[in-house]
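Thread: "does anyone have the structure for this chain?"

Original post by V.I.:
We have the sequence but no experimental structure in hand. Need at least a predicted one for the grant figures.
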Amino acid sequence: MTVPRVATCQFEPTVSRPDTNIEAIEELARKLPESVEFAVFPELCVVGYDLTAVPTHRTSVPGPITDRLTDVVRDVGVDLVVGIPEVDTGTVYNSLVYVGEDGVLATYRKRRLWGDEANCFDAGTEPVTVDTPAGTVGLLLCYDLNFPELSLTYARDHCDVLAVSAAWRQSFERDWRLLCRARALDGTCYVVGSNHVGTQAGRKHAGESCIVGPRGDIVSKTTDGSAVVSAPVTPESLTLAREKNPVWNSRQC
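Reply from O.Q.:
Generated one for you, tokens below.
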């Protein structure tokens, strides 16, 4: 029996070039092992992290961008978790879509907006999960990671994996991996964190994408020479972590 794997991919998007960025997503996805069930990509990566690009490239869900992503999934055989600017009846959200071969399976809207994002987006209000062969996955975006109460909503739903898409700046690099590890330990779950690299809109991003195990240990991470990494997700590792750190049960007391 093949053990399901999850992956994180990082790259430097080209601002205001969705076609170019979707091509980059496809190229990275093709580098993944066949056993990868889904791959996480950075926040707003289809347009680049430049808020001035949002009014021109905001998109409905489903819509032309998610249709293109669905085509990639069908061609490559790996589900995609991708950050997009979503518009819904005139309201714009910083969103994360989970796309499978049949289209969009889940859409999450960022609940904690950072800085000028509040001038561009409305905040989402709900946690969003999707069931996958790698387990139940909860979705988060960047600054959401700073708020343990958001990830704990997923712990109460017994999520096995948190998919975190980010545009984390280099000046906060230390916080990024620390928070990924902390949220994994809070929820005794895997955390798959994907971050931008390069510079957009004057922001230099940290990269440092990683996969964290349910005991808070980094099990796989990107390096200067690797833009994609993957790791297995096993029920045994989740069970062992929850036996050694029984926070699920203790929260009910």
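V.I.: this helps a lot. The radius of gyration is 17 Å.
O.Q.: and The chain has a mean pLDDT of 95.
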